[in-house]
Amino acid sequence: xxxxxxxxxxxxxxxxxxxxxxxxxxxxxxxxxxxxxxxxxxxxxxxxxxxxxxxxxxxxxxxxxxxxxxxxxxxxxxxxxxxxxxxxxxxxxxxxxxxxxxxxxxxxxxxxxxxxxx
Length: 118
Known about the structure:
Elements: E1 2-5, E2 11-19, E3 24-32, E4 47-57, E5 62-73, H1 104-113
């Protein structure tokens, strides 16, 4: 996280990157000095929930996310606790002409993590 304070130290510009491990984007926000401590909970690897707007930043010529609200969230792994394992037989992968975005290898890997036999 990069922090740049204004000359009078009353505000600061926070800049950091977020990712979902498929793509990343830069987040920028200005905060008043009394709120500086609020972002201390954000660490590398933290899960976050944010609401805000995408804006074009002419200083770094790219789109950035300008949050209006930020919450730290606990990252959890989805588990299949069903005693009898099953696999959905109809799905679309990124090789499909339909709307699938997952690769077949990722789907097979996830099924293996959930304990589904080969």
